[in-house]
């Protein structure tokens, strides 16, 4: 339990220093709109008239990196062919100790399977639900139900290596809401009341200023992991 508490504490601290889940911009808003209004699938295919319209290259995205990492989504915004098919497929990359900050998807459940490395995940579904912790190694999968608060970190447990995962969401427009950005976007007096008017409420303005703008999707993880990996991989 102490180990879990330490990791969760590190994750909370990272909210103030890392980049948060990226926002996807529509590559062709006009086409997206026309596809959504198409009466039949045949009409959609006519709009997606080139073979290239049916291929998505994850590695071509600027979000594909391991420094510290990134999330590349094939969804309604980035890959219009997904419209009407009810799924987003994402490629997740996490450098040593990198993490995805706590967030939730308001319109989709999330299946995540590890391809390489060791990734530790935490999830809580709702008030009263216990904290679910999993360790994903290649071939292992976990599920984050719709609206559940979750986070994951490349623990670098054995070699401080990179971690790669594939994520499937049950909507082509799943949405992502990062907890830190949403929480500190509320009026300060509301936040203070939610924290029981604790003296720490006087620091909310400063904390909010330290939360970075939306980036590639990943951030540096817990200080404990970072210290352990400072010397590089231990083969």
From TrEMBL:
Record key words, sorted: Manganese, Metal-binding, Secreted, Signal
Protein name, UniProt field: Spherulin-1A
Origin: domain of life: Eukaryota
Secreted as UniProt keyword: yes
InterPro entries: Cupin_1, Germin, RmlC-like_jellyroll, RmlC_Cupin_sf
GO CC annotation, single: extracellular region
SUPFAM superfamilies: RmlC-like cupins
Native source species: Verticillium dahliae (strain VdLs.17 / ATCC MYA-4575 / FGSC 10137) (Verticillium wilt)
Predominant subcellular localization, coarse grouping: secreted
Organism placement in taxonomy: Eukaryota, Fungi, Dikarya, Ascomycota, Pezizomycotina
Signal sequence bounds: 1-22
Family of this protein: Belongs to the germin family.
Location in the cell: Secreted
GO molecular function: manganese ion binding
Cupin type-1 domain sequence ranges: 58-203
